[in-house]
Amino acid sequence: MSIETEQKTPALPRLVVVISGRGRNLQAIIQAIDAGELNAEIALVISNRADAPGMQIARLAGLNCVCIEASGFRHREDFDRALAARISAARPDWVVLAGFMRILSQAFVERFDGKLVNIHPSLLPRYKGLNTHERALSNGDTRHGASVHFVTPDLDDGPLIRQGSIAVAADDTPETLAERVMAEVEQRLYPAALAELVAGRVFFKDGVVWRDQRLQEHCPHDHYDRLALS
Ligand code: GRF
Q1: Measured in angstroms, how far is the CA atom of residue 3 from the centroid of ligand 1?
Q2: Alpha carbon distances (Å) from 113 to 68, 157, 180, 204
């Protein structure tokens, strides 16, 4: 047997995707992997709601999935510890929050420091928290969009990885704007950001985002340029 035939295929980066709801971002990530646009595998999908439609998407895709409901725990920290233990057991390279509607404790965030990412439906730092589409319309914003960011202990405050936006239409309602941001921005943005992350072209270190301007793999960290966004 030649040396070439003995070489193993490198393991794919492992994603654990954490959801609460419809799972349209999860669906986009699955499709990007299937299309060869995202070089990763989904090791596990976790939902904190058994009735989350996203769980059905995960099951139909044949993915490992598990539900951990907060009602089974007395304290928020206990739920976070159980969630963290289940995530760790799946040996993730990246923990992908995709519509996970709970605020995570500092201990949880620090445990996955540098590999915990989230998508938020606004052009951060504008509109942290809920009802972002309604708030953008009330303020008369001409553009609205979404942000993928590293997660830090403060809500929707971590350094940005990528943003995307669309023009707000004169007849947009919060519902139509939310649908359009999802379909035209979020479902493209998250897979694209994850593709950069798993390729090692963007990473979080010492509280800031670094981006390899030379687009070379395996170059030492001090050759990376600091990303202006962070
Ligand atoms: C998305 O708008 C995401 O930005 C926000 O929650 C929503 C989740 O939607 N964090 P889905 O579950 O991916 O359909």
Answers
A1: 47
A2: 22, 14, 31, 8
Q: What is the pLDDT of residues 143-163, one digit of tens each?
A: 999 999 999 999 889 999 999
99 pocket-lining for ligand 1 (C-beta < 6 Å): yes
The two beta strands, 225-226 and 208-211, are: antiparallel
The burial class, CB within 10 Å (0-12 / 13-18 / 19+), for 230 is middle
| 7, 26, 38, 208, 219 from 96: Cα distances, Å | 30, 9, 14, 18, 25
148 lines ligand 1 (CB under 6 A): no
How far does residue 90's CA lie from ligand 1's centre (Å)?
23
Query: What's the CA-to-centroid distance between 73 and ligand 1, angstroms?
Result: 25
End-to-end CA distance of the chain: 50
pTM: 0.90
- Residue-wise pLDDT tens digits, 192-222: 999 999 999 998 887 788 887 544 444 444 4
